[in-house]
Write a structure and sequence with these properties.
It contains 7 helices and 19 strands. With 390 residues, it is α+β, with helices and mostly antiparallel strands.
């Protein structure tokens, strides 16, 4: 009898279909109110609502500050993205006033802090009553990642040197000590009587500058500064009981939500123009003197007309200095699927955790369905083919 029961249980287990997980996502465009251009897209589950803001500033390094947020309509879960932000740390200045304008870099002063301190400050800025903030875990980067990223940083330093040589205020500018710290960390804390978990994906970079000044008396003055940047910030905040349930959704959000390539290129042109207009002799900043052109007006001039472009030159999985979405592949290995609409010149790509073997796209509204099992969808859906990543 016992043997018969074992055979029956084995038959039932093999006959039962494997658990099928199927998720549906929408593509939400993000538009800049001042120019009316679509500058980014957000990929979120269907029951999420999206809000965004674009803040235009006269900060040379960050002329447009983008913030995107996606919130569940049913649970206390929030995904967010904050674009890159750069600061200057005057290394030998005893009293550094955060927020003051720095004329050498045309951005603001802020003392560099450890990543852990940065995240704690960020949590408190969003949740002033948060208590018992604890770092639960940090993801270690693969071997050799630091060396690879530092190599990219040295290429960037060569570009910075060319720009620095054009500054006639100094007889010598030396750039040293590049540092890169990719971060994937998870914190827990209590707020409003609830237990939360929050995970951050970002990357901190810094280089040190030594400026040697010159004057008519042939005397020199040396200034040492650290230029540091937080390269974008993706995060998921959820009640601890719901965190695991929404983690795959957060990975999809992070891997596929991105700025429009046309907007990225236009912002680079804006920054180049601001270098010209914010020249070393333009020192009226505290008197509220304006640029000849507002950053948003420059952006409007350089933004190309036509459809938004979300194509990729390189795979998202390849680490770069300009964005940090590739960090999701360190947490959860990704599969790459490609597609192209009839009105698009370049192929677009969609990334999903590798457990999802089937990806479908709606040709009409650009929504996606991902699944662990093959789905028989109605007319209007196409099946995306996976790319073989190297």
């Amino acid at each position: 009898m016992k043997k018969f029961l074992n055979i029956l249980i084995l038959f039932m287990l093999t006959a039962m279909p494997a658990f099928c997980e199927t998720l549906t996502y929408s593509s939400i465009p993000v538009k800049d109110e001042k120019t009316g251009f679509e500058i980014a897209r957000v990929i979120v589950p269907e029951n999420f609502e999206v809000s965004s803001t674009v803040e235009w500033t006269r900060d040379f390094e960050n002329p447009a500050k983008l913030y995107m947020q996606a919130k569940s309509k049913e649970s206390d879960v929030t995904f967010s993205y904050l674009s890159s932000k750069s600061y200057v740390d005057n290394l030998k200045t005893q009293e550094l006033k955060n927020g003051e304008f720095d004329y050498d870099f045309r951005t603001v002063n802020k003392k560099m802090v450890s990543p852990d301190e940065y995240f704690r400050t960020y949590i408190l800025s969003k949740n002033p009553d948060a208590t018992k903030i604890t770092n639960l875990s940090s993801v270690d980067m693969p071997s050799g990642m630091d060396e690879y990223l530092i190599g990219l940083m040295y290429q960037r330093i060569d570009e910075l040197n060319l720009t620095a040589k054009s500054d006639t205020r100094y007889s010598k500018i030396k750039i040293t000590n590049p540092i890169i710290v990719p971060q994937v960390v998870t914190f827990s804390y209590q707020s409003n009587g609830k237990d939360y978990k929050e995970t951050f994906l970002t990357m901190f970079t810094s280089v040190e500058y030594q400026f040697t000044g010159k004057n008519k008396n042939d005397k020199s003055k040396i200034k040492d500064k650290k230029f540091w940047t937080r390269k974008g910030l993706y995060s998921i905040k959820a009640e601890s009981k719901d965190y695991d349930k929404f983690f795959d959704d957060f990975i999809i959000f992070t891997a596929n939500s991105m700025p429009n390539n046309k907007a990225v290129n236009a912002l680079e042109h804006v920054k180049q123009e601001m270098v010209i207009e914010l020249n070393p002799y333009f020192v009226d900043y505290n008197k509220k003197s304006t640029l000849k052109n507002r950053p948003s007006d420059l952006f409007r001039r350089y933004f190309e007309v036509g459809l938004p472009d979300y194509s990729y030159i390189d795979s998202m999985i390849k680490p770069t200095l300009s964005q940090v979405r590739w960090l999701v592949n360190v947490i959860v290995p990704q599969s790459e699927f490609s597609y192209r609409k009839i009105n698009q010149v370049w192929r677009q790509k969609f990334y999903v955790p590798q457990k999802f073997e089937y990806v479908y796209m709606n040709k009409t509204d650009g929504s996606w369905v991902i699944s662990t099992e093959n789905q028989n969808l109605k007319k209007g859906w196409i099946t995306l083919k996976p790319n073989h990543l190297k």
